[in-house]
Automatic annotation (TrEMBL):
GO-annotated cellular components: membrane
Name recorded for this polypeptide: Endonuclease/exonuclease/phosphatase family protein
Gene3D superfamilies assigned: Endonuclease/exonuclease/phosphatase (3.60.10.10)
Annotated GO biological process: GPI anchor biosynthetic process
Domain (Endonuclease/exonuclease/phosphatase) ranges: 42-370
Keywords, alphabetical: Endonuclease, Exonuclease, Hydrolase, Nuclease
Lineage, highest ranks first: Bacteria, Pseudomonadati, Pseudomonadota, Gammaproteobacteria, Alteromonadales
Pfam families: Exo_endo_phos (PF03372)
InterPro entries the record matches: Endo/exonu/phosph_ase_sf, Endo/exonuclease/phosphatase, GPI-anchor_lipid_remodeler
Molecular-function annotations in GO: endonuclease activity; exonuclease activity
Top-level taxon: Bacteria
Amino acid sequence: MPLRAFHCNLTLLISCDRIEGFCLHSQSTNGSDTSELIKIATFNLFNFIEPPGAFYEFENIYTQEQWQKKLDWIATYIDEHQPDVIGFQEVFTPDALAQLTKRCGLEYFVVLDAPEVVDDFIYSKPVVALASRYPITEVHNVTVGDGWASMMGLQDDFGFSRKPLRATISLPKLGPCDCYVVHFKSKRPLFDAQALNGQTKPLTGSPDGNVGQLLAIEALGQWGSSIQRGSEAALLRYAMVERRTQTGNPMVLMGDFNDILSDGVLSALTSVDTRIKPDPLRGEVEHQLRDHRLNDAYELYQSSQYSLSCQQRPSTHYYFAKGSVLDYILLSSEFDIKNSRSLAEVGRYETYDRHLINPRFERDSQSTDHAPVMITISIRH
């Protein structure tokens, strides 16, 4: 199938047959009317690229059989779980994704950025996208606000490693909701320690000096990635608050954060620790900040009436045998039942990880290295 420019009116015939035996970490609401439920998911697709395109290196090209298998796996997940809104990461060929999601009932699709292409077929720097069952009324690529990067000690031309996407979606009973899709900078070092080692003055005095120097150089590269990732999180929060002040819309932030949310690098997204002096006429500063705070959907679910247990949170990614939660959905105060502005609550939280913890080659060989995460929002009467 030849590559072509992205457009939304293409049709891709692909099976959306249901399958059984899904191993879900989930708990559900107590029988609420389905017309009052909204499902939101985040899904890292892992190198979603239509052949004959290649990802990163010229030999990384799916065969037609592998590509169809990947499409089928994604379509089956969508059909089985029926999310209403999905934020996607690692998208190289958005036209094929638009066809797939439309075939599975998600009529609206948006992507604003484009990957880099070398020699007409080698792709790098994948982008984020969003598909929705409900109308998308406004879209915007989030950029760094004027002057803030330099005030943070960053270069004036600092930018997101992958531009976040904001889509305003008209949700039933909630109205316009600003949904953000992100893919923050990975933990991969900014530079290769061994490649740079030949350009640095070698250390002497110890036979282990070269190894120690390599480790130190690698630590510099890893910290550089942390600076990029943490700065992206802080600048995104500012952009979200700025938008919130202008519109008052509820906010949803979903994506691959490439780090643990509780880690200090990403603390800017949810932290309310402050030295700001409160306005005595408006009460405590924490109360004033509450409407602009983002909450982890998992934590909201655990504190809800629907939580059945305090089981350990399932990992969404594994590095060898070590699991981590890298994929998140954060919500504004409208989804916090304890907030006076609450309009809805998290009634279900699911991590789909069967392909990670119990994979079968014939079924999962072209799946993804992340676990999709989905929440179900229950609208208050």
